[in-house]
Amino acid sequence: MQIFLSYASVDRELADEIHLAMLGAGHKVFFDKESLPPGGDYQTKIRKAVADSDFFVFLISPESVKKGSFALTELGYARNKWKHPKGRVLPVMLRTIPCANIPMYLKAVTVLEPEGNVAAEVTEAIPSDASMTDGPTPPREATLPTEKKGCLNLQIRTSKFLLAIAIIVVAAALVVPALFNNWDKHTAAPTSPGVTPRMGPLLPGIQLRGGNFSQTPILVASAEECSERCRQLNSCLAMTFVTGPGHCWLKNAVPPQSQNSKMVSAIKEQ
């Protein structure tokens, strides 16, 4: 089979490996480094080489799809020969680029994304001479079984990643408030029916050190609100409010009192 290998000059070394692998598989390959004699009309010879080819391999890289690259000119010749690339053109993702940068003609078929040896996988993906007929082009999935749907796979992977992030965000939005709500309640038993607990008077400048429900305080607006929180919980026996940051420390015991001008405390009446 006559194959045209299109690539950017910066990818010449890897292209040469692919070229040699295809020669070893029995194919005839147009490789500009060796196939073009010095002098003459370079562009005309390239156009004729594409026209005489049975199959076209395009190595995708940032340079090969860059506007003005000669690889895109070669792809244009291939498009003139085959209106649709199915079964005749093999795009190979040599170096990953955004799908939006891949020419639409190449995105009309699946893109080979090698995972191992690039030269071996490209050679394996080329259809046999027997499948290249003058009749209807066989389905690309049948002729190129090792291909992976590059852009589609990338889009699916991206979509799954974004979906996973969205699920995490939604879960956090649902779970975190619930955790704070449970923590805010401090797993305390509800107030006993028929019993109305009362809090003692607020004690400015008094700190009750220790006996906290949690290592993290509740944020409230005032000492009165902190006292009311304690009143509503059977297991809360006292509280200390820190002015400024608005920290409310609910306590399951009545610790010793100490002087602190930034604190306001209260003890539940028994």
Could you walk me through the main structural features you see in this protein, from its secondary elements to its overall organization?
- With 270 residues, the chain is an alpha/beta fold.
- Helix content is 37%, strand content 19%.
- The protein has helices at 12-24, 32-35, 42-51, 70-81, 104-107, 118-125, 140-143, 150-185, 223-231; strands spanning 2-6, 28-30, 55-60, 89-93, 198-199, 203-208, 218-219, 238-242, 247-251, 257-269.
- A hairpin with a 4-residue loop joins strand 8 and strand 9.
- The chain is rod-shaped, with a radius of gyration of 37 Å.
- It starts with a strand and ends with a strand.
Descriptors:
270 residues, alpha/beta, Hepatocyte Growth Factor, six-stranded antiparallel β-sheet, four-stranded parallel β-sheet
